[in-house]
Design brief:
Largest sheet: 6 strands, parallel
Order of helices and strands: HHHHHEHEHEEEHEH
Strand content: 5-15%
CATH topology of the largest domain: Alpha/beta knot
Number of helices: 9
Helix content: 40-55%
Radius of gyration: 23 Å
Structural class: alpha/beta
CATH class of the largest domain: Alpha Beta
Shape: elongated
């Protein structure tokens, strides 16, 4: 572990990057219930406060963070407060470097003690029909885990859940929700409906106690084959919108419908 003296001897840019690395490491440790040395952490915070690259506003924000941290008795502080302190300080420094947070700057919670018990699993299936963005696929997994989805079925051209961006946005749920690749022609013989424009408004739609919800491509929507199959089954459901654009991100739209289905 680097010492405060050694940290101060580094060039400003190197010192700032090293502080960012240390803070991220402390956050990860805390998520795993390994509490860092808070005296050392305070030393790093004071070094951060005096970085030459900071403007007055950033210095004041860090000073306020440090003052609050010290007043809360760091030696007895819970990990969740340490995480928030490290995270706030780290993102001030990232902003100072004109580095807006990328996926790899965000800490994935993983399996925390707060996650306990069993999932409320319904006889609900979700089919991703050529959803191209790994980020969207991961986000949908995260939502599906919360709203009772029994299994996620993926078209052959849907982005892989093992893509690093999907793993990031899924926040550990890819390991929880069963999933497999299934061509549209081989979907289980269950009641089927799709999320698509021109359908029954969400509040008027009759959700099944068992069935498959189809979510279509970000670019071209649900495939004609599945639209036709839905028409012969439960039809399509739509989300009434009040904006000029008339569309939502596919993962956001999926979340709205899944919550409605789960609570029906």
């Amino acid at each position: 572990m680097i010492t405060i003296k050694k940290l101060l001897s580094l060039k400003t840019g190197t010192r700032q990057r090293k502080i960012l690395s240390l803070l991220k490491g402390f956050e990860t440790d805390c998520l795993n219930r390994v509490k860092p040395d808070t005296t050392f952490l305070l030393g790093i915070a004071h070094v951060s406060k005096n970085l030459e690259t900071l403007d007055t506003g950033e210095k004041n924000r860090i000073a306020s963070l440090v003052q609050q941290f010290e007043s809360d008795n760091p030696s007895r502080m819970e990990c969740n407060k340490i995480i928030r302190f490290c995270n706030s300080l780290r993102h001030i420094l990232l902003h100072n470097m004109n580095s807006e947070p990328a996926e790899w700057d965000l800490i994935v919670p993983g399996d925390r003690e707060a996650v306990s018990g069993t999932r409320d699993i319904r006889d609900f299936y979700l089919y991703l029909d050529d959803v191209r963005s790994p980020f969207n696929v991961g986000s949908i997994f995260r939502t599906a885990e919360s709203f009772g989805i029994k299994e996620i079925l993926l078209s052959e051209d849907t982005a892989s859940p093992t893509h690093r961006r999907a793993i990031r946005s899924a926040m550990g749920t890819i390991a929880i929700v069963p999933h497999r690749i299934v061509p549209a022609s081989r979907l289980p013989d269950l009641p089927l409906f799709c999320l698509e424009l021109g359908g029954t408004p969400l509040d008027s739609f009759t959700f099944p106690s068992r069935g498959i919800l189809v979510i279509g491509s970000e670019e071209v929507g649900v495939s004609p084959y599945l639209l036709e199959r839905a028409q012969r089954s439960l039809g399509r459901v739509s989300i009434p919108l009040g904006g000029l654009k008339g569309s939502l991100n596919v993962a956001v739209a999926a979340g709205i419908v899944l919550q409605k289905w789960y609570s029906a």
